[in-house]
Design brief:
The protein is an alpha+beta fold and 323 residues long. It contains eleven helices and eleven strands. It has two domains: 2-197, Jelly Rolls (Sandwich), CATH 2.60.120; 208-320, Homeodomain-like (Arc Repressor Mutant, subunit A, Orthogonal Bundle).
């Protein structure tokens, strides 16, 4: 239990690095210099985006910090200028512009920020997301934590571009828009992690089978609110047999029914995290996405995300109301 308490205190201290420009008491700065050269925080409700400018600095965890709160957070670092050398759970990695770095705050040991040029300018975009908000279990994310991820033309590139757009100083968001974009950001982080971890052969790029598979998935996403959406109705709409439909999904490691359920759960989760829908009853949100029985929805939601729909809504509301 003591080890768990230390991990939670560590996560809290590092999370303050995102949201509070004055917090230094939980770390030791190796050279004793000031921590920040400038900071800006974008309110995204369920997620926090900090755009921070630093002087070259080395932050190191102290052995006996004061517990300032309760946090269970994953952080994504996107270097905009400069290089980050981080040690996470004893694992050291270096990331620079063009990379992403995802880690569990509770296991971050130290971090060194270095300039790439003659000047001392460093700038990072830092995203903090509470673990209960992410549609990924801790075990599934573990292989990626503490490692740099090169940005390519796929989902990682989309994620980096989205974060850069949100980091624009000219961007102005009202609370409801910030909340919605926060949920989009969470989904993109989850999609990026899944894409990087995904393995196994899929359909040959550009093949007719892949084109059909993509068309079918698009069709399903457009009809998620239809309670009569089933593998048979999908197969009929595309003039193929149910068995052939199942083979298309099996080639990508999915089943049709499971993919439909997962997509519906993701839409419901996004609505539950939307501050503009806080007064809409949970059973109405569930029905909106094809779940006719509240108990069935609650069980599926807890299985997928580890918390009940009510607990998730409460957690996202608590996070978005943090000062």
């Amino acid at each position: 239990m003591r080890g768990e308490g230390i991990a939670r205190r560590r996560a809290t201290a590092w999370s303050d690095w995102i949201t509070n420009a004055d917090v230094c008491r939980e770390f030791a700065t190796v050279d004793g210099s000031g921590l920040f050269a400038g900071t800006r925080v974008v309110d995204l409700g369920v997620a926090a985006l900090g755009v921070k400018r630093f002087r070259p600095i080395h932050l190191q965890w102290e052995t006996d910090p004061v517990w300032t709160g309760d946090a269970d957070i994953v952080q994504l670092i996107v270097p905009r200028r400069g290089t980050v050398n981080a040690t996470w759970a004893g694992r050291q990695d270096t990331v620079s512009v063009g990379d992403l770095y995802l880690h569990d705050l509770a296991q971050l040991d130290e971090i060194r920020l270095e300039s790439d040029g003659d000047d001392d300018a460093l700038e990072l975009a830092l995203v903090a997301i509470p673990k209960p908000v992410l549609p990924l279990g801790g075990e599934s994310m573990a292989p990626l934590l503490g490692h740099g991820v090169p940005v390519d033309g796929g989902v990682s590139g989309l994620l980096k571009g989205f974060i850069e757009d949100l980091s624009d100083e000219k961007l102005s968001l009202n609370p409801a828009d910030g909340q919605r974009l926060g949920m989009v950001l969470v989904d993109l982080v989850a999609a990026c992690v899944s894409s990087v971890l995904e393995s196994g052969p899929g359909p040959r790029p550009g093949s007719q089978r892949q084109t059909l598979a993509l068309r079918i998935r698009t069709y399903i996403q457009r009809h998620l609110d239809d309670p009569d959406l089933t593998p048979r109705s999908v197969a009929t709409a595309h003039h193929i047999s149910v068995s052939y439909l199942h083979r298309l999904f099996q080639e990508e490691g999915d089943t049709v029914a499971a993919w439909i359920r997962d997509q519906r759960l993701q839409r419901a989760r996004r609505d539950l995290g939307d501050a503009a829908l806080v007064d809409v009853p949970i059973h109405e949100i569930a029905a909106r996405w094809g779940f006719g029985r509240p108990a069935e929805f609650s069980r599926a939601f807890r299985t997928a995300y580890g918390v009940s729909p009510r607990e998730f809504r409460s957690e996202t509301a608590r996070w978005s109301s943090r000062p």
